[in-house]
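Researcher: Here's the sequence for the chain we discussed earlier.
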Amino acid sequence: MYNSETIQKIYRMDRHKIHLLRFILEGYDGMAMARTLDPKKGRVIIHIAPGCEDDIEMLIKDLSKEIMIAQES
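Model: Thanks. This is the structure I predict for it:
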């Protein structure tokens, strides 16, 4: 899925919860994949399949109620 067609967004999150994000995204079968950029700072990049941006944004918004996760600007 890592290709030029995916939408890439960088997030900062609780570094102890990166595994949880990856596990949740795996359950959405091809909609998005997370890769850790800096494990000490909790920086991850999410590669989002075209057309799935709204669904993943809603998922991140809901997840942010439980753990610290925010998109970098």
